[in-house]
Structures are given as C-alpha cells and as structure tokens.
Amino acid sequence: MLKKARAAFRRGLNMANCIDHTARVYGDRQAIFLDYDLRYGTFSGNILTYTDVASLSSRMAGALVRLGVRRGDRVVMVTSNGVDLPILIGSAMKMGAIPVPLNFMLRGGEIAYVVENCGARFLVTDPEVFRINIRDKEAVAGIDKWIMAGPGDEVPEGFYSLDEAMTDAPAVFEPVPMRPDDTAGIFYTSGTTGFPKGAVMTSRGLLTGQKLAALMMPLGPDDLGIHCLPLAHLFGYGICIMGMVAGMRAYFLKHFDPVRVLRVIQEKRATVFVGVPVMYKALFAAGMEDYDLSSMRFWASSADAMPPEYIERIRKIGSAWKLGPLRTGPVFAEAYGMVELSAIATLKLYLPGLRWPRGCVGYPIFPIRARVADEKGERLPAGEVGELLVSGPGVMKEYWNNPEETAAAKKGKWLHTGDMAYKDRWGRVFFVDRKKDVIKCGGYSVFSVEVEREILNHPAVREAAVVGVPHPRKGEAPVAVVSLRGGEELGQDELLEWCRDNIAAYKCPRRLHIIPLEEMPYGATLKVLKRELRKRYMDDFGAASCE
User: Fold this and answer.
1) What is the value of pTM for the model shown?
2) 543 has pLDDT over 80
C-alpha cells in the first residue's frame, strides 16, 4: 500500500514521466507476461519488468525523434492489440508528441478521416494491420512518414522501421516537461452518433481517475490481471495506467477468447479480470464454472450495464480474503465512464456482504462531481430523471478541431454526458438510458434499456437491442433486434407475443427481428451500435397507417 501511494502521489507526476516513475518505484518486479514473443532488436521475450517497460519506452521515444517527430506533432497509431501499443503511446508522451491511438479494425477511409481531422503527418502501423485493413497508402492521404512497428526484418519496402530507429537509441530518455493541463493524447469516440470526435485528454485528466481507482481497489504487486481489452480505447488504456500505478502484473492477450481466458486464469492462478458485460456472457457460455478459478480475488466491468444475475454468479467464483478455513467471496467492481471522462467517473465496489440497488452505477470518485439536470441545466431533486452532468479533472479539454461539438457538450465546467440518470437521497447515481436512445412513442418516454432487460428474461434470448424508428402516427416506435442462444429455435411472432404478455403496452416493441449473433453490429467495447440498427430498420413502419 505504501508503494502504491508513493507511485500515485509523487509530486510532479504526469503522463510524460509516469512510466519512468513507476519503474523507479517497482524496479525489476515483473510487470507484463505475454502469450507471444515481443520482438525488437533491443528486447526479445515474453516477460517484461517495470524497468524493461521504461527502457523500451525511452528507446521508442528516441526513435520517434530520429524519425522526425517533434513536440506537438500528432502521431496516429493503428497497430495490433499488442503490449507495444500502450508503451508506444507512453513514449510519444515522453518526447512531447500527441498520440492518437485508433482501433486496429478501422479501414483506410475511416483512418483517413481521423488523419485529416487531427492534422497528423505520422502514422504507426504493423504489417498485419496494414495488409488486412489499410491495404494501400493511397487510402490515407496526408501522411508524410509511414512507420512500421514490430521486428525490423518484417518491415515492407517503403516504410520506416521503428525497430531500426530504436537501434542505438538510449535506454534513458529525459521526459519533456508537462504541465497538468497540457494535452497528453487524443482519443477518438466510436462515432455512434455521427463522425468520430477526438476527445483531447490532459495529463491530469488521464491520471486522476485511474490513480484514485488504483488506491481504492484492493490490488497490488502480488496480483496478476488478465488484460484483453482494446488497448487503443481509453477504457483499455486506462486500465494499463491503473495497473501500472498499483504495481500489478498483467498477462496480455491480443484477442479476447473466452476459453483461452479461462485456461490462463486456471493455469497462471490469475487474481484479476476486467472486461465488459459481453465478455462475461461469453465466459459463462464457455462454461466458466467448470474451471478452477479459485485464485480470483477481483472482477470488474464497465462500458455497459452488467446484468445483476451475472454479478451474483461472478461473486461466487473466487475469494478476496482467506484466513485459515474462512473465506470471503471476491470483490466485484463496476465503473461508469466514457471517453470524454477519461474512462471512469463513478465506481461501486461489491465487497463481501454489500449489495447495490439495480441500475446503480455507484458514487462519483472524488474530486469528480455528478449532477442530474433538466433541459436548462438546472439541478433536479432526488429521484427525478434528467441528463447526467459531470465535472472534474477527468473531463476532456475539448473535441479536437470541433468547437461546435465542444460547445454543445461542455457548458462551463460541466460535461453533458448524453446519459439519462437520477440520484437517490444518498447521492448514488442510477443510469437509465442514453439520451439519444430514449424513444418518444405517442407521448410516452420509452427507455430502451428497460425493454432490453425485460426481453433478456426470455430463456432463449442471448442478445437484445431496442431502437426507436419513425412511426407515421406515434412519431417513434420501439423495434427489438434479438439474437438467440445457440441451439434455440423461436419464431419472431412467438417472441413478439411473449413481449406483449410481459411488457407494458406503451413500451412493448411494435416490431421484432431475430438475427444471427454475428450480424449484430458491435463497437470497440462490444456495445451494440444502435445507430447501425436504426439505419437497418428505418423503414419498418413506412408511411402507411399502422398500429
């Protein structure tokens, strides 16, 4: 605990010197385990200490300088989901550039939009991502230097090799001075409501919530966490910062495979897993109760609401504290956050014997503040639903090159999250729905999350998403898009009739579609992209008169 506090509260700690500082605190303690070999000329292997991470970061920073990157330059990073990505992000911050990490599944045209929007002249990728997703340099105009990560002997002709540029680069690179409110990175939103927007994150913003969460959670150097979240997303990157401050060990998997995750937990005696609800669904479907997961002390989830029945099952797997024959259940943590809030804003911990009401996302992490407001921004009393506003050091500075969207999202110190919520008399925050997902049906407000929750009670249903589409008489009407569990057979009319019997008439879906799970559109954090479903079923009711 003392080392963790020392790592978190060092005076002058910022995102430029964070990697070096944690290396000074934790030194040659093991930091990272890989299920593959990381291959660079200056390092090759599958186990890295905190000192190794700092050394690699310094050499990468020196390499970027050699390749012409200067302070303030935006560097787009589109690489595989390997551990060298967060190290590269830290190296760019160390030498004063602004990293712009992107999901490796993006195509050339999508990357081109971000490059133009942020004015980047440098792009880092790797052979696999370039071959499968980008394919052609001409698809991304404006890049002066294409830099290839990974082993130098695998770099195609026409690319600069990061590995070669690291050769003879010093193992110690003095971090640039960075003030708390300096821009540390740009993290683009998923674009679920239009074109992606670049959330500009400050050093203070990236550090505050993550280090406070690290201090609050019962984690430390003896813990081994499984990391398979998207590292280019602020949630995944934020977990890296949190684990680094806590001095944890992390086992990195490039891709989420539920069977592989369960085997690694069992074989390596892992103690920590952080995922999103869809990952937990997959773990249960893979038969997680059939594995020896007794080593697990801590489970956590974010990015979407975790079904209470899943939480109850998870809390029976593992043990947080042991004293002779006495055992407690594991700790389960659920966080609420978004890119614009540096990933985390509220937190609730399920400690042994502690329960939380359904829909509650916990308390704001001090010094973060949360307010529920009406359309005018005025505070609403406890129990009334309104938009959730958040203020504090984690709030983004702005949307890059987008003053109109910035003005719409930030009103003074408050960020308008676009989430509908309420607070109870104890100050606990309860999530209701995304503001854009509230369906206005014939004068009623239908919260899509509530309807989805009811549909998921049907034993044959694995996934459910409810969206509002135009209706000629009601303005909007709810449409449900459902995927069934493997081996289940159920007709759309039969399931729709079940909905009519179990869901109030004003919010019951008027149309229902059953589709294969692989046709359900998911984003980087495995949330269903409702925007895509709205487009797909926009003409469900047409212009003709209908019920």
Assistant:
1) 0.85
2) no
Q: Are 219 and 403 in contact, with CB atoms under 8 Å apart?
A: no
**Domain for residue 309, yes or no?**
no
CB 335 within 8 A of CB 302: yes
User: Tell me, what's the pLDDT at 256?
Assistant: 93
The structure tokens listed for 109 are 């045209």
Is the residue at 293 inside a domain? Answer: no
Last residue of a domain, one of 157, 180, 205: 205
pLDDT digits (tens, 9 = 90+) for 503-524: 988 889 999 999 999 999 987 7
Residue 178 forms part of a structural domain: yes
When divided into structural domains, the chain yields a total of: 2
Amino acid at 336: Y
Q: Which helix (H) or strand (E) holds 348?
A: strand 346-350
Tell which residue, 35, 114, 100, 112, has the closest CA to residue 237. 100
Provide, rounded to the nearest whole percent, the portion of the chain with pLDDT above 70: 97
Closest by alpha carbon to 40, among 18, 62, 19?
Answer: 62
pLDDT for position 193? 45
C-alpha–C-alpha distance, residues 261 and 61, integer Å = 32
Q: Between 50-66 and 18-26, two packed helices, what is the crossing angle to 10 degrees?
A: 150
Which residue has tokens 């409501």? 193
The answer to whether position 84 is within a domain reads: yes
User: Partners of 47 in the beta sheet?
Assistant: 33
5 CB contacts (<8 Å, ≥6 apart)?
215
Q: How far is CA 312 from the centre of its chain?
A: 23
Structural domain boundaries enclosing 165: 2-205
Integer CA distances (angstroms), 369 to 363, 365, 391, 419, in order = 9, 8, 5, 15
Question: What is the DSSP code string of 466-516?
Answer: EEEEEETTTEEEEEEEEEEPTT----HHHHHHHHHHHS-TTTS-SEEEE--
| 524: CATH | 3.30.300.30
Domain end: 205, 232, 257, which one?
205
Q: What is the CATH number of the domain that holds 58?
A: 3.40.50.980
Q: Among residues 407, 393, 286, which one has the least CA distance to residue 342?
A: 393
The number of angstroms, rounded, from the C-alpha of 360 to the middle of its chain's C-alpha atoms is 19
Q: What's the pLDDT band for 192 if we cut at 50, 70, 90?
A: very low
Six-digit token string for 21: 């500082």
Long-range contacts of 193-198 (CB under 8 A, 24+ apart): 193/436, 193/531, 195/113, 196/110, 196/113, 196/114, 196/117, 197/399, 197/400, 197/402, 197/405, 198/100, 198/114, 198/117, 198/118, 198/399, 198/400, 198/401, 198/402
pLDDT in tens, 318-370: 998 877 777 788 999 999 988 999 878 899 998 877 789 888 999 998 889 99
Helix axes 492-502, 448-455, angle to 10 degrees: 110
